[in-house]
Specification:
The chain is of the alpha+beta class and 54 residues long. Helices cover 37% and strands 11% of the residues. It has one domain (8-49).
Length: 54
């Protein structure tokens, strides 16, 4: 499998898309009215968290 290297503006757009996905997943858990979310793993029991970190 070959690797695709991206530079300049194309690389920044890819990084921005990844950061935005992560921020959307975490932001619902932040603040005083943060919701609980379930983090599913490939193995073991799912983890319920409400602080955006653990």
């Amino acid at each position: 499998m070959s690797k695709i290297l991206k530079f300049d503006e194309e690389a920044r757009r890819g990084l921005e898309a990844g950061v935005n996905k992560l921020a959307d997943a975490v932001k619902v858990t932040l603040g005083p009215k943060g919701r609980n979310v379930v983090l599913d793993k490939k193995f073991g029991a799912p983890t319920i968290t409400n602080d955006g970190v653990s």
